[in-house]
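ARCHIVE CARD
CATEGORY: sequence design from structure
SOURCE FIELD: tokenized fold
FIELD CONTENT:
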């Protein structure tokens, strides 16, 4: 089989997880959601802005030797609703599935409201949002009722906020 354009940049992995069909520019937000900084020791490949039949341009994240929990996979849907998760074993894709946004998003996004109980350090209340709408993305804080939208979510998960 002839290598795809993407494979000319980054080779196929032996075992681990390939997160494919990420919206172009969102690969680093996906890594942030997974808490991967590069210091964990896994081999990670980030491919950005490669051609995709479905999306025009897409990003891909390949993580050698790491599986994702169902919860992690679901959270990826916040920034990459079209993403597919490929489990690779011995160079073969043994499982492929689409991400699916969970009904409640816990402990990953901060509330927009500075007086929300989740923003009072002494209260130790984890932020939790109910998904009100998937597209466009709209979440509601379970504690204070504030709404947050896709732009705010992406901004919070952007590189400069975490790395
Ligand atoms: N991949 C990889 N290493 C492997 C096998 C696959 O890095 N050993 C990557 C491929 O490069 C691709 C993704 O995993 O980015 C999915 O692989 P595959 O299912 O073979 O590709 P497609 O059929 O093109 O996937 P889809 O139908 O989901 O677009
Ligand atoms: Zn709140």
């Amino acid at each position: 089989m002839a290598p795809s354009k993407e494979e000319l940049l980054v080779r196929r992995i032996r075992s681990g997880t390939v997160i494919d069909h990420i919206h172009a520019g969102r690969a680093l937000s996906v890594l942030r959601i997974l808490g991967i900084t590069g210091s964990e020791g896994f081999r990670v490949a980030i491919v950005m802005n490669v051609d995709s039949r479905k999306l025009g341009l897409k990003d891909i994240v390949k993580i050698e030797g790491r599986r994702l929990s169902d919860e992690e996979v679901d959270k990826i849907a916040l920034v990459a609703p079209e993403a597919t998760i490929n489990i690779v074993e011995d160079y073969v894709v043994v499982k492929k599935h689409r991400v699916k946004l969970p009904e409640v998003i816990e402990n990953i996004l901060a509330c927009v409201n500075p007086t929300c109980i989740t923003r009072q350090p002494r209260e130790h209340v984890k932020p939790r949002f109910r998904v009100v709408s998937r597209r466009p993305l709209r979440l509601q804080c379970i504690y204070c009722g504030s709404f947050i939208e896709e732009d705010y979510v992406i901004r919070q998960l952007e590189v400069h906020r975490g790395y």
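CARD ANNOTATION: The chain has a mean pLDDT of 91. Residues 111, 113, 116, 118, 141, 143-144, 146 surround zinc ion (ligand 2) (CB under 6 Å).
SHELF: design records, drawer C
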